[in-house]
Amino acid sequence: MQKKKTAIITARMTPEDKRKIEQRAIDAGMTVTDFLTTCALGKKIVRVDGLDTILAELKAQGRNLNQLLFRLVLMLGLSMIPWWYW
């Protein structure tokens, strides 16, 4: 569970610095807030390319497994079907 972010920090900078920060946040796959917080607190930023493809495949496999198990439950006539199927 993420903590609720309620505190605000205002910073003045040149438009060029702002653009660079925004681009670095995009390159890191983060929001500007998360990027700046991570950098300011000295945490390491790790970016792994190609995870979008792997995640999409993993989700597809999960859906397939879910469908197979649902059909198995129906074939076996079990009445213990989880609430989220209805």
Describe this structure in words.
By secondary structure, the chain is mostly helical. It has a domain at 51-85. Helix content is 57%, strand content 0%. The protein has three helices and no strands.
The poorly predicted ranges are none
The overall average pLDDT, rounded, is: 87
Q: Decide which structural class fits the backbone.
A: mainly alpha
| N- and C-termini, Cα separation | 27 Å
Order of helices and strands: HHH
Estimated share of beta-strand residues? under 5%
The description of the largest β-sheet is: none
The rounded Rg comes to 22 Å
Helix content: 55-70%
Shape: elongated
- Total helical segments: 3
How many strand units?
Answer: 0
Quick gist of this model?
With 86 residues, the chain is mostly helical.
